[in-house]
Amino acid sequence: xxxxxxxxxxxxxFDIDGTLYRNKDFFARVFPHYLVNLRFFRKYNQVRKELRxxxxxEQGYPDLLAVQNELLxxxxxxxxxxxxxxxxxxxxxxxxxxxxxxxxxxxxxxxxQRLRQEGKKIALLSDFPPEQKGEIWGIKAGCxxxxxxxxxxxxxxxxxxxxxxxxxxxxxxxxxLYVGNSHAYDVVTPASIGMKTAWxxxxxxxxxxxxxxxxxxxxxxYLQLEKILFQ
Length: 231
Fold this sequence. Notes:
Blueprint: E1 11-14, H1 23-36, H2 38-53, H3 56-59, H4 64-76, H5 80-92, H6 96-99, H7 108-117, E2 121-126, E3 145-148, H8 149-152, H9 160-169, E4 176-180, H10 183-192, E5 196-200, H11 203-207, E6 217-219, H12 222-229
Parallel strand pairs: 1-2, 1-4, 2-3, 4-5, 5-6
């Protein structure tokens, strides 16, 4: 579905992981690191799944990082301090060097620059620390709001990160376009509070006719999204 134009929105917000860069490019580089730390990543993924499934996630945890660390320590059978040290070494600091080598999706930085020139506010919202990605391919400097859901206290698909995003932008939800690659997290949830949504999918899925019945736009190339909005 392609039902939007630029006049209907005042701000465009982007997920980062898998949206501003292709997951396949990242996984190709990080795979050896993942294999070496396979046990840790399995436990860490279990913890994140449990955090999302807990009803507390919808309203937000008072201290999400502390709860995450406590659960991780139990699964790894280590102290809280040891769990945090591993988390930082393997994930937060450990993955940072890989992002420095990943290229942004084609045309994404130029598209965002054009939005800025049109006076649209730009925001980023990620389930992982945005600072982990450095300057985010030059996009960071032009952003009005950059948020990590861990700091907000609720992981996607909670609606809380999206309501906080709208508040920080100072823009009504219905005047925000949210762009992301996860249908459950980046389309269904923001759409539920009135945001416009654009679902970013792999090219092969697009060529095979995949479309969302929820998203206002389904696209697989940022030139497509630019053409739709600027038509």
